[in-house]
């Protein structure tokens, strides 16, 4: 069986910087303020097949004596979605503490988990033969391996498809925080890619390039790496408890007030920030809700609304029969209102006529209405008069009719989301979404009904890399 290796560089190649996942998230008003500004470093045309990913601009730098992985047509992948790994007890590195080594490998596996449906868990107790991926360090002839390491020099590590990874302990491996030596994290991510079935990718910026690039404080998986691994294992699918745009205002250099936003997806006890300008999830996500949203319920949030008028700027989260108001300046939930009444409050108290628990809700800024969803009904709530409109509740199918017969969520919607990036309303249920017809759609096709639901599509086709990770890696 052939092994794939990573070698020293022939050219210094550029890697994109990203926040280190271990760092705590910044306050809301300190977060990304250019959510829709396209980053020129990350613009790339879509990959249509794996062959395109393999023959990019770095091919002329190929090292000819390298043992290649098989071509894409012969690629093999694991048949299961949860894989175990272990650093061999008899073969740790003599350069880093055991704790550092295990933490680095945990992070390396998590980086692949963030862009695939795969979960990785460290298993310290199962018989060695049952562990899916075993890692170890050695020098020269090592670990009964048929390949011999060359000492400090050309080969840093090698790996076998669906098998083991060996690191040459004659190299100077260093943690991600170091600017010197060889990044153990970067080499580990590369070799894990091979174990998962990826060949080398000859494209500048790819972690799967055969040539190692110099150590940097942080790096991330390239677009070509993500597309290649998803060709083998598919995209991440799943439902969401709620999705929303978080609006904030700031002044530019000319003193003009600018409106910026970031998009968030919540599922169970985790959340993701979606980078609209890059059309992908932020690296290092998901994060546990209490880490970034102080004072909210720790899981299973039903809905979010942002009442945004000339006189009001209020954000509310809903769960069960209660709701919380959130202070964006202090980055925490309010504990009491202006009259000293404590939060959380009952939904019936703050939003009379609205049933609980809710399925979802969204605020329609132009109409100044909140649409609350409960089973097969929708309630339109007037925020200025603080009451449900007289003609409501109505069937969801009446207010938001299906354009294609029977192509409709009908009831128990997971999330209703007004997207400022797309100027559209979306309904989520399970793995699917429905887009609500907007003014632009009707200008292009006047026969479309107002508020009609376009045929459903897969969430993963529009919002990329919203992936779960193994619970053991959530606090990284």
TrEMBL record:
What this protein needs as a cofactor is: Zn(2+); Ca(2+)
Can you tell which superkingdom this protein's organism belongs to? Eukaryota
Q: Tell me, what is one Gene Ontology molecular-function annotation carried by this entry? A: metallopeptidase activity
User: May I ask which residue range the UniProt record assigns to the signal sequence?
Assistant: 1-24
Name the Pfam families on file.
Answer: Hemopexin, Peptidase_M10
Q: Which UniProt keywords apply?
A: Calcium, Hydrolase, Metal-binding, Metalloprotease, Protease, Repeat, Signal, Zinc, Zymogen
Q: Which stretches make up the Peptidase metallopeptidase domain?
A: 74-235
Start-end of each Hemopexin repeat: 237-296, 298-354, 355-403, 410-466
Q: Does the keyword Metal-binding apply?
A: yes
What family is reported?
Answer: Belongs to the peptidase M10A family.
Protein name (record)? Matrix metalloproteinase-21
Annotated organism of origin? Galeopterus variegatus
Species lineage: Eukaryota, Metazoa, Chordata, Craniata, Vertebrata
């Amino acid at each position: 069986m052939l092994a794939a290796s990573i070698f020293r560089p022939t050219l210094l190649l550029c890697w994109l910087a990203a926040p280190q996942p271990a760092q705590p998230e910044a306050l809301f008003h300190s977060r990304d303020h250019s959510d829709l500004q396209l980053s020129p470093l990350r613009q790339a045309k879509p990959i249509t097949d794996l062959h395109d990913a393999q023959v990019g601009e770095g091919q002329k730098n190929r090292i000819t004596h390298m043992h290649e992985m098989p071509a894409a047509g012969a690629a093999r992948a694991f048949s299961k979605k949860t894989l175990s790994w272990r650093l061999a007890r008899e073969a740790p590195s003599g350069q880093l503490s055991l704790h550092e080594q295990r933490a680095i490998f945990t992070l390396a596996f998590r980086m692949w988990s963030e862009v695939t449906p795969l979960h990785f868990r460290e298993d310290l107790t199962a018989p060695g033969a049952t562990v899916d991926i075993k890692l170890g360090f050695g020098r020269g002839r090592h670990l009964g391996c048929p390949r011999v390491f060359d000492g400090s020099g050309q080969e840093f590590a090698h790996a076998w498809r669906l098998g083991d990874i060996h690191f040459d302990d004659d190299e100077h491996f260093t943690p991600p925080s170091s600017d010197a030596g060889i990044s153990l994290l970067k080499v580990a991510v590369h070799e894990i890619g091979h174990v998962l079935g990826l060949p080398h990718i000859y494209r500048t910026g790819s972690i799967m390039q055969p040539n190692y690039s110099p150590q940097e404080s942080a790096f991330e998986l390239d677009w070509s790496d993500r597309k290649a691994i998803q060709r083998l294992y598919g995209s991440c699918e799943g439902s969401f408890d709620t999705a929303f745009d978080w609006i904030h205002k700031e002044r530019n250099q000319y003193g003009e007030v600018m409106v910026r936003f970031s998009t968030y997806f919540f599922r169970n006890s985790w959340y993701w920030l979606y980078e609209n300008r890059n059309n992908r999830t932020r690296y290092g996500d998901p994060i546990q809700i209490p880490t970034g949203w102080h004072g909210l319920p720790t899981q299973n949030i039903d809905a979010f609304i942002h009442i945004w008028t000339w006189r009001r700027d209020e954000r509310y989260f809903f769960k069960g029969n209660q709701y919380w108001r959130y202070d964006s300046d202090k980055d925490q939930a309010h504990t009491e209102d202006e009259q000293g009444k404590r939060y959380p409050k009952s939904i019936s108290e703050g939003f009379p006529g609205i049933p609980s628990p809710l399925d979802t809700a969204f605020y329609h800024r132009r109409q100044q209405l909140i649409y609350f969803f409960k089973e097969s009904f929708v309630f339109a709530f007037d925020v200025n008069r603080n009451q449900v409109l007289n003609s409501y509740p109505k069937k969801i199918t009446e207010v938001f009719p299906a354009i294609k017969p029977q192509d409709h969520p009908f009831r128990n919607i997971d999330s209703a989301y007004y997207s400022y990036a797309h100027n559209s309303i979306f309904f989520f249920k399970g793995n699917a979404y429905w887009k609500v017809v907007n003014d632009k759609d009707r200008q292009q096709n006047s026969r479309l009904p107002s508020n009609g639901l376009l045929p459903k599509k897969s969430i993963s086709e529009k919002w990329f890399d919203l992936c779960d990770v193994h619970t053991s890696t959530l606090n990284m």
